[in-house]
Hints:
Blueprint (H helix, E strand, L loop, with lengths): L4 H18 L21 E6 L5 E2 L2 E2 L5 E6 L2 E7 L6 E7 L18 E4 L2 E5 L17 E3 L2 E3 L9 H16 L3
Parallel strand pairs: 1-9, 2-10
Antiparallel strand pairs: 1-6, 2-3, 4-5, 4-7, 7-8, 8-10
Amino acid sequence: MMRSRTQRHRSLCFVLLALLALSPLAPGATRGACGEGVHFSTDWVNFYSAPPHTTLNGAAVPAGSCIEAFAGGVKIGSFVVKTAGAYGFLAAYLDDPTTPEKDGALQGEAVTFEIEGLPAAPQGTWGGSVAPSWTAKGASIQVDLAAGSTATVTPTPAVHRAMLPVILLRGALPR
């Protein structure tokens, strides 16, 4: 029996929605727990910021946000914000010489940050560092951060990808 065009489109819609629901990019999906993939060692530097000097999209970074530190593309530390506009102490770990892979920062290596997966730029407010690096074991370094846009809220990539099937399906369905 031949299915009608409407039935085929409905089947396609169902398949696309099912794939979207199972996708790690589905709305509500997470990038993993904050700090996942960090290799802990006995040597670290502490990064911090006092309220309200760390921002996301022009406002104080909200409690519950994830701030992650990287050195040479390797995640070296993370912190879940407890007080809006502030973070820390975020322990950023030195490379472990007993492992064959690079799993931490090297002495003097530049450190970059992300807030909720968005690149965060050091602001240098209140004497904070504008070029943070892994300095010395146990050091405490103020780094005020800003991520996202100050004009509009930047949606996560998952929102854009979640909208794609809806946009595609609008054109595919008969009117």
